[in-house]
Every structure is written in C-alpha cells, then in structure tokens.
Write a structure and sequence with these properties.
single chain; about 800 residues; alpha/beta; TIM Barrel; Rossmann fold; Immunoglobulin-like; 6-stranded mixed β-sheet; 23 helices
C-alpha cells in the first residue's frame, strides 16, 4: 500500500486502544482532576487462576504457559504495537508505543495528557543534557521520567513500554534528529545509554559494570526464582538500531536509504552505544531502524539481532520502527510480496511490528509456509516476558510495586528543580569577549530581548510533552531588570524570510542598556523527517543580528537555539557581539530561567559542545556518505572530531567558564610493557615471524592478549580553579595514538574518559582516572578487529599533555 494509506490505517488502528486501558469516550478538559479512567488489567478474578498470573513462578514459566493457551489468530494479534485483547483469558488490549525521550511525551498513541495528569516535567532536549557531560545528572533525569511514566500508567494515561533513548551517533551536522542524541562521540553516547536505561528501568546506578555473560547468568538465576526479582519500573528501548542518521536529503529518505558502512566504522562508531545500552545498561527493548545497511533492511538483519542476544546478552523484545516492516517491501523492495516482508523480519528475530502489516499479511505468510509458528512463539515469549517483568500480569496495578505512584509524583518541585539544573549544566558559553558576562543586575536598568525564539514556549525540541509550567526565554528575565522590552525581529518567526520587523527591533535596541538577541533553530528547521541543507542561520537571521549589533549602545549577547551546529564564524569574529551562548532546546519547563541565571552570574556555565561545529563548506559533502574516516584522494575530510581533518568553527568539547582552570599532573607511568606471558599461546605466530625477520611490531590485537588487566594504570591530576568564582567543570581526557602504514583509520584523537566536578574558587580538586589501554586506546581495524597500536601515546587533559609508551 502507499505510505499515505499505511499511515491513515496505522493511526486509525492506534487510536482504538490507549495503553491497555479503556477510557471514557467523552474526554474531559485537562484541568478536571476528578477524572479517573476506568482501568482494565489482566489477571483479575475469575482469570487469576491461570498459571501466567501466578507471581510465584519464574518469568519463563509464566510466559510459556500463556503462549500455550493462545490460538494462532490470537498470537498474531499480539505481535503489533497495538496488541489486541484476548477476552476469553481476561487480557485487555495493550498499546506498546509510549514516548519519553526527555520527559513523558505526547508523540506516540500510548500517552495522553487529557486526563487527571495534564502535564509532565519537560527536561531539556537530549543534546543539551549531553552537553553537561554529567553521568549522575543523566541517571537522575531518567529516573524522574521513569517515575512519571509509571504514574501516568497507574492512572491509565500511558503504557509501560517507552521508546527511548535515542543512542544513534550525530554523524552529520544537518541531521534533523541529531538533537535527540548526546552528540557525535560513541563513548559519550554509550555512557548516556547506560545511565538512562538504569535510571528509567529502576536499576541502582551504583551497581558496577556487568558483562554480557554476567548479565545472562543473573537473568538465568532470576528466572529460577520469583518474577519480581528482575522487575522493571518501566521499559526503556534503545533506538534506532543501527547506522541511522538521515531523514530526507535530496532523493534519499530514511524509508529507502541504504547506508553503506564499513565493518571498521560499524564496530568502533555505530555499534558501541547499542552494545553498552544492552550489555551494561540492561535495556529491555531494541528498535530496528528504517534504513538498510549494506543492502539489507535493518529490521531483516538476522546477524544484528543475533549479535545483540548471543554476544551482548540482550534479554528483551525487538520492535520495528513504525512502518519499517511495510517499508521492507514498499520502499526498499527487498521482498516480492508483503507477506514475505513479514516473514523475513520475524524469521530474522523481530518480536513486534509497529504497524498493521503483521496482522494483515501474517496469517497468509503462515499459510504459505513462509512463517512458522515457532517464530511467532519465540517473538511472543520475548514480548510477554517483558510485560511480566513490568507486572502487567500481576493483577491490579495499584497492588504491585510502584503502584502507589500517581499524580502527586508528576511535576514535583524536585523534578522541576532537576529540569532547571539540567538546563543550567547543558548551556555552553561559546564566546565571552573581555569577560562581558556575567552582567551585574544593579547596573542594568533596561533590557531588550529580541529575536524569533525569545518568546517561544517551544523550547523542548521534538518529542516534547506538555510542560508543567511553560516558560520562555523572555519570561526568565522578568526579575533581572526594571524595564524589559521585546521585539520578535522576524515577523514570520524562525524562518525569517523577510526583514519586516527589523525596524521595531532596532528602535528597542537603541534605547536599552543591554541587548540580548535570541536566534537559531526550531523544529520548523530540524526535526524527524526534516534534515537541513545549510548550516547558516535561517533566512535573514544573520542580518537581524548584525543590524541590532550596529544599533545597540554596547556589544550584545547572542543566544543560539537548536540542536544542530550553526556556522557562527561571523559572530565569533564580530567584536560588537560580546558573548555567545548555545542554549539548544533547554526545555519548556525551566530553560528560560536557566539562561537568565547564567547571564546574570547566578550560575557559572560549564557545558561543553557534544558535537563539532563546522563551517558551511561541510555541506558540499553528501549526507549519504557514511564513512567516518577521511579520504584525501577524493577530498573527503571525514566525520566527527575523531576523524575530521577540515576547518572547524568550534571544537568538540569547546566551552568557556566565568573562571579559569589549570591542571597539574600528580602521577602516571611513562612506559607500559607487554610481557611475553601476557600474550596468548595461540597468538604469537605473527609476532614470532616479525621478530625472526627483525621486523618492528606496530600493533597487537586485543584478543591476542591473555591479561589485559595487567596494563591497567591510574592517572592522577589536580584541577585548580584559579579564578574568584566557584563552578562545575567538565574534565575530558583524550588520547592520540601512534600511526603506522599498517594501521589504517586510526583516530586523530579520541575521548577516553570524562567527568563533571564541582570546583571552589582558588582551590584545587584532585581527580583519579583508571585507564585500560585494551579498552581506551584500541580501535577497530578494517576487519572490525580491536587493535592496540604499539608506540607512544599522547594523553591530553585540557592544556596538559603527557606521553606514555606501550611496547612488547
């Protein structure tokens, strides 16, 4: 069917069920708090005698018991996101699709804000919280969202399966959904994935890292006991698996794009966040993406699904992105018939389709022998196991763990304070000429706030929900000056297609003591299904900025919104623009307040850019080129700070403060030796051959080493806040390894550790970093094999550099 027909049918079906609950057809206004949906749940009398309702049994036994009771049509009806009810077993319908990217969101049919809970805490967009480089903050945000998600479920306004986080790599600065990610670095994306999943699903972040084998052992042990041993507060879903970062560019769109990815790039860039999300985070869901990878749609990639389950220890369900199964046939033309598309996806290891294709064509696929009942039962086992872990077959939700969460646990003072803190920590000070900021409120009598994003309440970016108390940037400054004036500057908003409105803005700027211009991007410029073609400010926004700069009494402050980089070379060089802050999408909850606090010095900015900011010339490179490594023979500069060799506006990790920092190395080795006993007995053939010919050994494969732990060392340093202002500071440790002709594609440098610390003025803070060279210094070779180069490494810590050699 056509994409339009699919979407109409898809959403029509989706509306019929809301999160597994029946809700009155006469929905009351959002502010009527007496409204109570009629909850429908499984395992209530007389159906609670079934074995799948017995909470004393293991998850596997309960899931298997339920599958044995289902007829084939009932089974197929449970394989889509809008799962059908099974009335004869007392099982209500269930809507799997709920969203919670940076707060409970209204983008999916599983969440409703039309009920007893009319809003949810709106945290900053993920790219902003990524800029905080603060693991504990990420965990707290995810935990708060999970609590609010469970509260929504308990009053019938959401499901318990939420499709977040987005852990894709922000490879190309034009990508419309880059705002949903933590940026371009796989280490950061992986760390965020772990913290989000643990916090959201209710796992204690203090638990140490767990390997895939250890997690499988824990799961097996838990399966032998009670189901609540591995219970979930809510289910997180790592998406979009994998190598997905193009919406619509030229003739290509996400529904038909075939991403050609080398095994080298796959192993050390695209896959690590998903591996960490599963292996260390314990995600209970993976979502396969729309695109193909090397000729095969990802939702039909059996090897991807096997890797997750067999190597990473994945224990959960795999869902398609919405419509992706249909697009295997309709857009990728990978199969000859719709039923073939259903069959190839489920036989590859898919467990659920978001969309109706499976119910439409699944029965025929079974009848034709293309899809076996065993494949369906396997998928159901994975789906039902997650639902059992969530308590969906434990009877009345009010009587189970987390059943006491409700409206009073949403939009709490604690959660709103956390949203404010996240916006503070994620704001990045890009420029501060002559220490123009912070401003002294006692010396500012009038303030002009100008620009198309100054009064906007759409500060959450995409996948935002309904904020508890929406605020704009303009709102945030209300207590900081006696006279505050506003002009939009661009009458048509962010697109700014004419100069109409400039005159009013200039008039206000001439009269004010301080001028703050708020420009940049919104979701009319970058969003799902919307990539950019240019990195310049939209329309006449640049002209607005320079015109105001010419008219104002003093240099102005420029605030830049949006998730993707903008070419700000003109502003960086213009002395009339004293300070530039990137505020991204700081959240509709408290973003405006956070910005005002920073500008007037109530909070010292410490955010760092999570993505390189490129010049406009980067747009000459096709978005469709997935190669991370540069290729000088075709003038291809590579992607991200790890490999990019071209000009930059701002570096990855750039960010200023109102104070200064100096580093001092306290201790670190200068040499590490790999002894013969560290090398596996089966490995030395290549090594001996080189030694016999007096050849120089340039590298060793990580899997050739018997004892990687023997190379682990500690680096200790002190960070001195040499200024007069306290402030948090992001410490980032990079490594630059040796290069040789034999080792293709070594990174220019790569982040190996980061943390956010609080510093006191005129005092030093000590840091200690544990470094495992096998993990932190290695990268994938052209065959995807982890390789540790031998020779001299440069460790870069702010302005401090030290050399460590690794040799046999």
């Amino acid at each position: 069917m056509s994409e339009r027909t699919f979407l109409i049918l898809f959403f029509a079906i989706g509306i019929l069920s809301l999160s597994g609950f029946t809700i009155s057809t006469e929905d009351p206004p959002p502010n009527i708090t007496s409204y109570t949906p009629q909850l429908q749940f499984a395992c209530k009398p007389p159906y609670n005698s079934y074995q799948f309702c017995n909470t004393s049994l293991a998850v596997a036994a309960r899931a298997t018991s339920l599958i044995s009771l289902l007829a084939l049509p009932e089974k197929i009806g449970l394989l889509i996101e809008n799962a059908a009810s099974v009335p004869r077993l007392g099982i209500p319908a269930y809507q799997w699709w709920s969203e919670s990217l940076h707060g409970v969101g209204g983008s999916g049919p599983g969440v409703s804000f039309n009920g007893i809970i009319p809003a949810a805490t709106s945290f900053p967009q993920v790219i902003v919280t990524g800029a905080s480089f603060n693991r504990s903050l990420w965990y707290k945000i995810a935990s708060a969202i999970g609590v609010e998600g469970r509260a929504f479920f308990n009053v019938g306004q959401a499901g318990l399966t939420f499709w977040a986080p987005n852990v894709n790599i922000f490879r190309d600065p034009r990508w419309g959904r880059g705002q949903e990610t933590t940026g371009e670095d796989p280490l950061v994306a992986a760390a965020y994935a772990i913290e989000f999943v643990k916090g959201f699903q209710g796992e204690d972040r203090r638990r140490g890292r767990t390997s895939g084998g250890e997690r499988r052992e824990l799961q097996q042990r838990a399966g032998e006991g009670r189901s609540d041993d591995i219970g979930l507060m809510a289910s997180a879903c790592c998406k979009h698996y994998t190598a997905y970062d193009l919406e619509k560019w030229g003739i290509y769109d996400r529904y038909n794009f075939d991403a050609m990815v080398t095994i080298q790039d796959m192993e050390d860039t695209y896959q690590p966040p998903f591996e960490s999300c599963v292996e260390q985070g314990g995600a209970s869901c993976l979502m396969c993406s729309y695109n193909s990878v090397n000729g095969v749609p990802t939702c039909a990639q059996k090897n991807f699904f096997q890797k997750a389950r067999e190597e990473w220890g994945f224990n959960g369900y795999i869902t398609s992105d919405c419509g992706a199964v249909a697009f295997i046939y309709e857009h990728h033309h990978f199969t000859k018939t719709p039923e073939d598309a259903v069959a190839v996806a489920f036989k590859a290891g898919l467990d659920m389709e978001c969309g109706p294709y499976t119910t439409m064509f699944g029965p025929l696929a079974v009848e034709q022998g293309k899809l076996q009942v065993e494949d369906i039962d396997r998928a159901l086992f994975n789906l039902l196991s997650v639902q059992i872990r969530l308590g969906l077959f434990d009877g009345n939700p009010k009587n189970i763990k987390h059943g006491n969460l409700g409206p009073s646990d949403v939009c709490t003072a604690e959660h709103r304070a956390l949203a404010l803190e996240a916006a503070r920590q994620g704001t990045v000070l890009l420029k501060n000429h002559n220490n123009f900021l912070p401003l002294d409120r006692n010396r500012v009598s009038s303030l002009a706030i100008i620009g198309p994003m100054a009064m906007s309440h759409a500060l959450g970016g995409d996948y935002a929900g309904q904020p508890c108390n929406p605020t704009s940037v303009f709102d945030g400054f209300q207590s900081y000056a006696n006279k505050i004036s506003y002009a939009i500057g661009c009458l048509d908003g962010v697109p700014c297609k004419t100069r109409a409105g400039f005159a009013e803005a200039v008039s206000l700027a001439r009269e004010a003591d301080i001028v703050i211009v708020v420009t940049g991007l919104d979701t009319s410029q970058e969003a799902e299904e919307l990539d950019r073609y240019s990195l310049l400010m939209p329309g006449y926004q640049k002209d607005l900025v320079t015109t105001i700069a010419s008219a104002s009494k003093r240099p102005l402050v420029l605030l830049v919104t949006g998730g993707g980089p903008i070419d700000l070379a003109f502003a960086e060089k213009d002395s009339r623009i004293a300070s530039i802050l990137w505020i991204g999408y700081p959240g509709g909850e408290a973003g405006g307040n956070a910005v005002a606090e920073i500008i007037f010095g109530d909070f010292n900015p410490g955010g760092r850019l999570p993505i390189t900011w490129y010049p406009e010339s980067i747009t000459k490179i096709p978005m469709t080129d997935m190669n991370m490594r540069p290729n000088l023979s075709r003038n291809y500069p590579g992607r991200t700070y790890r490999f990019y060799t071209g000009e930059k506006i701002y570096e990855f990790g750039h960010g200023l403060s109102y104070t200064n920092f100096t580093y001092k190395l306290l201790s670190a080795p200068n040499k590490l030796g790999i002894l013969p006993g560290f090398i596996k007995a089966a490995a030395p053939r290549r090594i001996k051959a080189l030694q016999q010919t007096n050849g120089e050994l340039d590298y060793i494969y990580v899997d050739e080493l018997e004892y990687c732990d023997s190379l682990i060392f500690n680096l200790q340093a002190s960070v001195m806040n040499s200024g007069d202002v306290d402030g948090s500071h992001v410490v980032m440790l990079f490594s630059r390894g040796p290069k040789s002709s034999e080792m293709e594609g070594a990174p220019e440098k790569q982040l190996i550790w980061f943390d956010r610390i609080h510093t006191i003025a005129r005092r030093s803070t000590e840091i200690s970093v544990t470094i495992n060279p096998c993990e932190h210094f290695s990268f994938a070779d052209v065959h995807g094999r982890r390789t540790l180069p031998l020779g001299n490494y440069t460790l870069i810590l702010w302005d401090l550099e030290l050399t460590i050699s690794i040799n046999i």
